[in-house]
Write a structure and sequence with these properties.
The two termini are 76 Å apart. This protein is 25% helix and 47% strand.
Length: 392
């Protein structure tokens, strides 16, 4: 290490000696106290590295010897200074590169949330909370206050029991521990009606029934209560127990659909207009393709976002592709049969979404024609379990 500093401070040069007895020259240099490094013999030549201060002594030693000398590579601060004086722009460029490296490495540029148990939406929310807390790409290390930022993030995101921040070069890692809430009491204390209807049958497993077969109940009305009398006790107290059972009722579902004769039909043509944007570190997106207005009056939009990542780390850069698919619209006149078919299909589709279980007992349909279209009223009577447990 000392030899390296010596060569760097005082300069060095590669020397090649050839001729008669070059060993004598090397020996005289060593005996005179000159430092020599990496002395090697190649054929009838000797190669070594000498300090710049030894060049004058070397020339004096060669005056009475039949040897030839050749200087090769050279380096050290003296040569660097000469080159800087003759070509100052090289020094300015080197200084600019050093400043650029210092500027880049002294700031954070990437915010990452490691771990696969967190959803992409949660990661985006954490990164946005970190930016709001003062941890932005481009922030110097000495400006950041990780403790204050962590407290601000915990206040903004109460769903996490712990939020940790660590800095590794230009990367900030966010470690989180989700808050596990205490599970609610799973024991229902009563059972209520999910729909209005007429009770047909009751199966009581635990609790006290509040209604009976043949009663009409409304949505939300209590069907089975968990509080029952305790006749064996000295006082007629009520003991809170769980409520469990099934209550079947005939529930009436009603849907009305109006279908006009004249309808607007849409069709995607396949003609597209594409825009591409790039967004860096949460700044405003910049349009890089697809300038101008969308050349269609009616279109369907599809947005595709591609975040940029390197070795599993999310970079603060993302590209967005927006595809505009042209839609053609035209007015179509339906026949009575077509209008009635569409109205029936739509009404049945809506009822299928409303009725999740049960046995369909009755189906009624009322059709009303008008000048502009047809109205269909579809009624289903379904026998199903309407018991819904309610916990405290």
């Amino acid at each position: 290490m000392i030899d390296f500093l010596y060569r760097l401070l005082w300069g060095w040069v590669e020397v090649t000696i050839s001729g008669r007895h070059p060993e004598r020259v090397i020996s005289q240099l060593a005996l005179s106290g000159q430092r020599l490094w990496a002395v090697k013999k190649k054929g009838d030549r000797y190669h070594f590295i000498a300090p710049l201060t030894s060049v004058a002594v070397l020339r004096v030693t060669l005056r009475h010897q039949h040897c030839r000398i050749h200087f090769g590579r050279r380096g050290g601060i003296p040569f660097m200074w000469r080159e800087f004086i003759s070509r100052p722009f090289l020094g300015v460029g080197a200084l600019s590169a050093v400043l650029l490296i210092f500027f880049t490495t002294s700031r954070i540029w990437i915010i990452d949330v490691p771990g696969t148990t967190i959803s992409p939406q949660a990661k985006t929310q954490l990164i946005q909370a970190a930016v709001a807390a003062g941890i932005r790409p481009g922030t110097p290390h000495w400006v950041m206050r990780l403790r204050q930022s962590r407290l601000l993030m915990e206040r903004a995101l109460p769903q996490y029991a712990f939020i940790g921040l660590s800095v590794q070069g230009v990367l900030v890692r966010i470690q989180v521990v989700p808050l596990v809430a205490k599970p609610p009491n799973a024991v229902p204390h009563k059972i209520v009606a999910a729909h209005s209807g007429t009770v047909t049958n009751m199966l009581i497993y635990m609790g006290d029934p509040e209604v009976g077969a043949g009663d009409f109940v409304r949505k939300g009305q209590t069907l089975i209560s968990g509080a029952v009398q305790a006749p064996l006790l000295a006082r007629p107290d009520r003991i809170e127990t769980a409520a469990k059972g099934e209550v079947f009722a005939d529930v009436r579902y009603h849907v009305g659909v109006t279908q006009p004769f004249r309808v607007m039909k849409s069709r995607i043509t396949g003609v597209q207009f594409i825009q591409r944007l790039i967004q860096v570190a949460g700044n405003a997106p910049v349009l890089i393709q697809g300038y101008g207005q969308v050349p269609f009056r009616f279109y369907h939009t599809q947005k595709i976002v591609h975040p940029l990542a390197w070795q599993g780390v999310n970079l603060p850069v993302e590209t967005t592709k927006i595809v505009y698919n042209k839609i053609e619209r035209r007015c179509v006149t339906l026949t009575k049969e077509q209008a009635l078919m569409q109205a029936r299909a739509l009404a049945a589709h809506r009822l299928q979404h409303m009725v999740r279980q049960g046995i369909k007992l009755k189906r009624q349909e009322h059709v009303h024609w008008s000048k502009n279209g047809v109205s269909v009223q579809l009624i289903w009577v379904v026998n199903q379990n309407i018991a819904v447990p309610v916990t405290k």
